[in-house]
Amino acid sequence: MGLSDTVIDEGTPINSFNLYFFGKKKAEIKISEIGKGLTDFSYLFAFEQSKNEALLYQNLQKNGHDVLWNTEFSNLTQNENNVITIAFHNDEVKKITSRYVVACDGAKSPIRHQLNFPFHGGNYENKFFVADTVLDWNLEYDKLVIAPTNNNFCGFFPLKGEKWYRVLGTFPKEFYDKKDIAFEDIEAVVKKTLGLPVTFEKVNWFSIYNLHHRCVDNFRNKRVFLAGDSAHIHSPAGGQGMNTGLQDAYNLGWKLAFEIQGFAKETLLETYNEERLPFAKWLLRFTDRAFRIMTSEQWHIAFFRRTILIPIIQTVLSSDLLKPTIFKTISQIAYSYHGKKLSLNESKQKLKFDAGDRLPYKNEIGFYRQFSAKGFYLLHIAHEKISPQTQAEISKLIPIPITFWEDLPSEHWKKLGISSELFILLRPDNYIGYLFDSYNPEKFKDYFSENFHIF
Q1: Confidence of residue 425 (pLDDT cuts 50, 70, 90)
Q2: How far apart are the C-alpha atoms of 383 and 408, rounded to whole Å?
Q3: How far, CA to CA in Å, does 388 sit from each of 222, 376, 405, 441, 443?
Q4: Residue partners of 135: CB distance under 8 A and separation at least 6
Q5: What gap in Å lies between CA 189 and CA 171, rounded to an integer?
Q6: Host H or E run for residue 147
Q7: How far, in Å, CA of 446 to CA of 455, rounded?
Q8: Which helix (H) or strand (E) holds 375?
Q9: Does the pLDDT at position 297 exceed 70?
Q10: Are 251 and 203 contacting, i.e. CB atoms less than 8 angstroms apart?
């Protein structure tokens, strides 16, 4: 979207992962280049959700659109062609007619409630807090610090600005029934959990959460779609929440655009639920297990955490062989839509990637920036380029915007299993839709025919 430079300027890199247990350092792993060779952004990076929202809003305005602020959803009705939404804007009733509605209205989603989406899961017993602070300690200010104890844990995440940290964690049981808790009430607990000298010079924001782990069983109800927290909520383990919501939105966004613009059939929108729901359910299981292990007060889990898990984490994060897998999992670039309707592999080559995968990164700065047009790309790896006649034929056959991209069969591609001519049809979200060894107009047409209008 052309926004990454701004993100880099306004965020802060995290250079090491540190594990402390009652003030004793159990692990310190340098993670500044944990994803080297996998992306331009091969490191952990902190960019707060509030900044992300402001950046996306500015980008929306630059593209000639705006947000109707101070507006409260009331109810909606659906018919065959439209959704009619009633909302209140500055105490005035607004009637909004639209082709579709995307409910990005958070964990308490009134739209999800009105349409009776089942929201399976449960609540954690623990109470969770988060605070944006300015602190002073003897550690460097570029460290991610995790400090579990036998009955709670705290995490410290560096933010942009001198001494700025986001502190989050769980309360001990004695706080479960207390109300109107302020940061000052738990400051001593946080310091004890960390076990290191620390002074909180300022607290800019403090909030308490009751955590849930829940997911719908369908992201769609006729013309209404759910995205982000309205569809799935989970613990903050792994820092996956905002990333997952953005992935939901991008997956749905290009499909909605193509349907509204007349390029695609409405069946294309069915692939949103097909592709994103399995990941949401996997993420729920993953974060739930990680969170329970890190926060459980049961003696056997606390013993496992203290004596077995911490050494395992140190070993795993120190392994150069395992670092790429860890990075790809946490960054979500390993997730694949393999086996889904839009993923088709007809290549007979022994490729180390598949249809449904994210396009493998070529170790060149700005590689993915080459694929930022609002449409499909047809990548052609071969010694000879696609002829102008074939390009014209493909462009006439498929009304979708398609850009042709040529590359030679270099060592990079050979290491990925490409031994002869290969075509890679790349979706607008940089996932591979279709792989084939030679162009066949009928097969190419067949790939698009179910979900797109073709000539």
Answers
A1: very high
A2: 6
A3: 42, 18, 13, 15, 20
A4: 156, 163, 165, 167, 198, 199, 200, 201
A5: 8
A6: strand 143-148
A7: 12
A8: none
A9: no
A10: no
* Burial (CB count <10 Å: 0-12, 13-18, 19+), residue 283: buried
Residue 372 CB coordination number (10 Å)? 12
**β-strand partners of 199:** 136
What is the average pLDDT value for the chain, to the nearest integer? Answer: 90
Task: Determine contact, residues 449/341, Cβ cutoff 8 Å.
Answer: no
pTM, whole model, 2 decimals?
0.90
Kindly provide the b/e burial profile for residues 143-161, where b requires at least 16 CB atoms within 10 angstroms of the residue's own CB.
bbbbbbbbbbbbbbbbbee
Torsion angles phi and psi, residue 64, rounded to 5: 85, 20
- Distances from the Cα of 125 to the Cα of 153, 215, 295, angstroms: 14, 18, 10
Least Cα distance to 342 among 406, 280, 267, 438 occurs for 267
Could you tell me if 428 and 374 are in contact, meaning their C-beta atoms sit under 8 angstroms apart?
A: yes
The structure tokens listed for 333 are 């670039």
Q: List residues bridging with 196 in a β-sheet.
A: none
Confidence of residue 316 (pLDDT cuts 50, 70, 90): confident
Nearest Cα neighbor of 241 from 145, 168, 158 is: 168
How many other C-beta atoms are found inside a 10 Å radius of the C-beta of residue 81?
8
Q: What is the biggest distance separating any 2 CA atoms in the chain, rounded to whole angstroms?
A: 74
Give the span between the Cα atoms of 58 and 355, in whole angstroms. Answer: 34
d(CA 21, CA 310): 9
| Residue among 69, 48, 62, 55 nearest 3 (CA) | 55
Q: Give the SS3 label for residue 183.
A: helix
- 3-class state of residue 338 by DSSP: coil
Token pair 């795993």 in the structure block, residue: 316
Q: How far apart are the first and last CA of the chain?
A: 30
Question: In this structure, are residues 306 and 21 in contact, taking their beta carbons and an 8 Å threshold?
Answer: yes
Cα angle: 263, vertex 265, 267; to 5 degrees = 140
CB crowding 292-326: b at 16 or more within 10 Å, else e? bebbbeeeebbeebbeebbeebbeebeeeeebbeb
pLDDT of residue 44: 85
